[in-house]
Amino acid sequence: MSQPRPLEFFHSTEKEPHLERARTILRAHPELKDLCGPTPITAAFVLLLVAGQVGLAWALRDSPWWALLAAAWFVGAFLDHGLWVLIHECTHNLVFKTPRANALLQIFANLPILFPAAISFRKYHLIHHRFQGDLELDADLASPFEAKVIGNTFFGKAFWMLNFWAFQALRVQRLKRVPFFDGWYIANLAVQLAFIGGSYALLGPRALVFMFLSSIFAIGLHPLGARWIQEHYLVKPPQETYSYYGPLNWVAFNVGYHNEHHDVMRVPWTRLPQVKKIAPEYYDTLHSHRSWTALWLKFLFDPSLSLYSRMTRSGDSGKGTLKLPDEPAKAA
């Protein structure tokens, strides 16, 4: 176990690293551009996962509480995590050609997750790519207050992972330059409220409890929750972004290929492994992870890893409200 470092963020004076990496990689391997573009078959997986999760909730509608908990941990979390990955695909417009069609699909994918988060994720995640490590704009970073409150103890970090969905929502207040409410978010919220009301009436409260537990396990106190640690937590500083090449990529739509994704964002999940195969010299030298479970346990028990284990950089993105990329409301 590593020795704990002072509880403070790492800081870089360099710009966000992936834009220049992408230019270098594409100059060396222009054939990577052939991998880019939407993959409509992803919509079929969205339909299957939504149907599977709702069907499982229906099957569990009269089950005892222990069965709801076990089913959410061992099955529901994987289905919801898969939906989050496909919401991510929609965010990058990698399913259909237009932002509007992708936004509509991700609202549908959001249904069994319960929290109305697909549209806000779309907004904040695209900004994360542009301003990685900027505390004013990157919602993927914990705020200094959040990091200080959680600290580096097992119990603090376990509490944080169990309630990650709530902490993520609270970060919105910090990002004052990013408008939160718009017509698309209101539509996302209205659809979710209608779905929750219909599920309560048709399936009953226990089905909703199952879906809620699945949602919090999918992104929280579960080996799948290590994905959020894997992507940018500094296990080998100063490297800022890390990929995962373990077996759970088979059920997580290759989301572990995170360096590859940041470098060439227009490559869909079906072709992400090919990025590493085509340009191995840019990825084989980077530290990567082979086990989400091992990383999950390391994060919980190792005091040298905490919410402070992130690279930050001073904002140089100007002032005022940002113009958001690929806004679905403006799409044809």
Question: What can you tell me about this protein's structure?
Answer:
- With 332 residues, the protein is mainly alpha-helical.
- Helix content is 51%, strand content 3%.
- It contains 14 helices and four strands.
- The strands form two sheets. A two-stranded parallel sheet has the order 1-4. Strands 2-3 form a two-stranded parallel sheet.
- Helix 9 packs across helix 10 (205-218).
- The longest helix has 27 residues, at 65-91.
- It is globular and about 55 Å long.
Which characteristics define this entry?
4 strands, 51% helix, mainly alpha, two-stranded parallel sheet, 14 helices, single chain, 332 residues, two-stranded parallel ribbon
List the helices and strands and how they pair.
Elements: E1 10-12, H1 18-28, H2 42-59, H3 65-91, H4 99-109, H5 118-130, H6 144-150, H7 154-162, H8 164-170, H9 183-203, H10 205-218, H11 226-232, E2 243-244, H12 258-263, H13 272-278, E3 288-289, H14 292-301, E4 311-313
Parallel strand pairs: 1-4, 2-3
Helix pairs in contact: 2-3, 2-10, 3-4, 3-5, 3-10, 9-10, 11-14
* Nearest-integer average pLDDT: 93
Instruction: Outline the biggest β-sheet.
Output: 2 strands, parallel
> Radius of gyration, Cα only, in angstroms?
19 Å
Terminal residue distance:
54 Å
Brief summary of the model shown:
This protein has 14 helices and four strands. It starts with 9 loop residues before the first strand and ends in a 19-residue tail after the last strand.
